[in-house]
Amino acid sequence: MTMASSNPDVRIVWHPVVDAEPGGDASATQGAAVAGNPPANQAATIDQAATIDQAAAIDQDAAIDPNAAIDHDAAIDQDAAIDPNAVIDPNAAIDQNAAIDQAAAIDQDAAIDPNAVRDSTAVTPYDSVWAQTGVPGQQSTGIERQLLKEDKLYTVLAVVLIIWFGIVLFILRTDRKLQRLERRVDNRSTSSSRDD
Amino acid sequence: MNRSYPYLRTAILMWVTAVIVGAFLLRIPKMSILEHTARNLYFHVPMWFTMMAGMALSAFHAVGVLARPGREHDLRSATAAQTAMLFGVLGMVTGIVWARVTWYQGTDIWWNFDPRQTFAAMSLLVYAAYFVLRSQIDDIEQRARICAVYNVFAFTTVPFLLYILPRQVTSLHPGAEGNPAFSDITDPRMRLVFYPAVIGFIALFWLLYNQRVRLGRLLAAADRTSSEHDRSLAS
Lengths: 196, 235
Prior knowledge:
Chain A has a two-stranded antiparallel sheet. Chain A starts with a strand and ends with a helix. Chain A folds into 2 domains: 2-117, no CATH class; 148-195. In chain A, 12% of the residues are buried. The longest helix of chain A has 43 residues, at 153-195. Chain A contains 8 helices and 2 strands, in the order E-E-H-H-H-H-H-H-H-H. Chain A has helices at residues 26-33, 43-64, 66-75, 78-81, 90-111, 114-117, 142-148, 153-195, and strands at residues 2-4, 11-13. In chain A, 61% of the residues lie in helices and 3% in strands. Chain A is rod-shaped and about 75 Å long. Chain B has one domain. Helices cover 77% and strands 0% of the residues of chain B. Chain A binds chain B through residues 120, 124, 126-131, 135, 137-140, 143-144, 147-148, 150, 153-154, 156-157, 160-161, 164, 168, 171, 174-175, 178-179, 181-182, 185, 188-189, and chain B through 1, 9, 13, 16-17, 20-21, 24-25, 27, 29-33, 35-37, 100-101, 105-107, 185-187, 207-208, 211, 214-215, 218, 221-222, 225.
C-alpha cells in the first residue's frame, strides 16, 4: 500500500501481508495496492498517522520482508515529524477502509464473471444442495461410496457402454442366426411345395 | 423379414447408444441426496414406461386371440408379455439400487415396502402368474383362449397398481400424496435425455419383441415339421 508524505516523491510503502489462509481474502491486499493517493494538502496529517501506524506495520512486515524496513526508513519525513499542525486525521483510516472496500467490490465483480455462469457450478432453480454439504446419515461404505463419488461418472459410463455394446452384439448375432434359420425354413418349405 | 428392418435396427441401436452417452455426459441440476444418481431417471422410469407399453401390446393381441383365434396373436401376446416382464424386472432392479444409495443410504435396507415399489412388484407378480398359467395348459387352443382372458384381466390392473393407488398414499416417489409431481422437480435439461430415453427403450423393446416373435414362428415351424415327419414315419 502506498501513502503520500509531505514530500510527494517519497511514499510510505506497506507491503501486504501475503500469508493469507487458503481461500482467504487475498484480494483485499491486492485491492489495497491500487488505492489512490490522498491529496497533497493532507500529506502532513497523513504522514503523522502513518508514523503512528508504521510501528505496527514495521513489526508485521519485518517478519516476512526485509525490504519493508528500508521502505519505512525512506518514508520517515523529518518535516512532518516536527510539524506543529500535525493532527491525527481519522480520515486517513477512513481512506484505508475505503481502499479495502474497493477491493471487496473488485472481488464481487470477479464472482459474477460471465464465464462462471457457464461453469458446472452455475445455480439453477432446480438446485438444492450437493450431498457433500451435509447429508444426514451414516458414512458411506462399500458400494455406496463408489456410486456416490462424483468423479466416477466416466468410469460408470465406460462400464455401461461395455455392457451395452455386449447387448448390441448379442442382438446382431441373434438377428444373423434368425435370418439363417428363416432362410433355411423358407428353402425347405419351397422345396417341399415343389415336391408336392 | 422386412427390407427396412436392418436400417431400423441400426437406427434404434444408435439412438439408445446416444441416449446412454447423453445420460452420463449432459449436465444435471445439483440435487441433494440424489447427486449423480439422478441420472438413473433416464433408465429407471423409461423401463417402467416400456413395460407398460409392452403390457398394452400384449393385451391388444390377447383381445385379438379372443376376436380371431389363431397362433399368431397368441405368440405375439405371450412374447410381448415376456419382453415387458424383462423391462419390468430391469425397472425394479434399477429402482432398488437407486433407493439403496439414496433413500436408504447408511442403512442396510434394500426394500422398504414403499407403496409404489410394492404395487409395481404386485404388477410383476400378476404377470408372473400369467406365465405359470401358460405353462400349465398343454392344449394350444385352450391355452391361447384362457391366457388371453387372464391377460386382459391382468392389464386392467396395471393402471390401478402403477398409477392410481400409488398416488393415493404417502410415498417417497414423486407424484405421490403430499409429494411434488414429476413435472415440478424435473429440470428441462433432463427432459432432453428423458423423453428420447423413453422412445429409445420402447424401440429397443420392439426390437427384442420382434426377434422373439420370429424365433417363436421358427419354433412353431419346427414343431410342424417334426409332427409331419412323425406322421410320415407312422404311415
